[in-house]
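Re-running the complex after MR caught last week's input typo. The corrected sequence lines follow. Everything else is unchanged.
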Amino acid sequence: MSIITNVAKFFSPDEPTPEPQQVRHAMLDIETLGKGNNAAILSIGATIFNPFTDDIYDTFYVAVDPESCQQLGLTLDASTVMWWMDDARSIARSNMLKEERVDLPSALYGFTDWLREDMPVWGNGATFDNVIITSAFNACRLEKPWKFWNDKCYRTLKGLAPEVKLQRVGTYHNALDDAISQTKHMQAVVRHLGLKSL
Ligand SMILES: [Mg+2]
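Corrected-run output:
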């Protein structure tokens, strides 16, 4: 009897169509004190978004104490420190100096908690954000919360549609504002290219 009821319910025309399952990807942006694979991290910004719509489901930001990075063996690089000192970075720099910082393991625990599940994680460059944060997880002896095949390169993707221009929101070189700008740009690129899967 219960089976018949369920079948009838399954075919009922009055049932609302179920919501399509959310496609969830993450866009990651980190600010650092170096360019190498083991760079000390200043901040981590990220979004969880749907690349096939305009949806941004959630955002994350944490400022990291670079001394805690150094203590774990991550490195500063003089040219990047000099780059931060340039006037072009003065707004991002002075905002950054006012922020409350947490040590690297706490920042990575927070990021893992926020992400909640494995998903594609996009960074700006095949050797930058994802590689550096992977080194940071390793330095803290923490497991990176996504599989290596989910490391994705937004820089490569945007190169397929150079005619779609990035429009910045917020402060350039604030990791969250950059992650949001990159997310919106990637959604525009995906729409422009008519991509149905990634
Ligand atoms: Mg950035």
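None of the earlier attempt is carried over here. The first helix runs from residue 2 to 11. The chain is about 40% helix and 15% strand.
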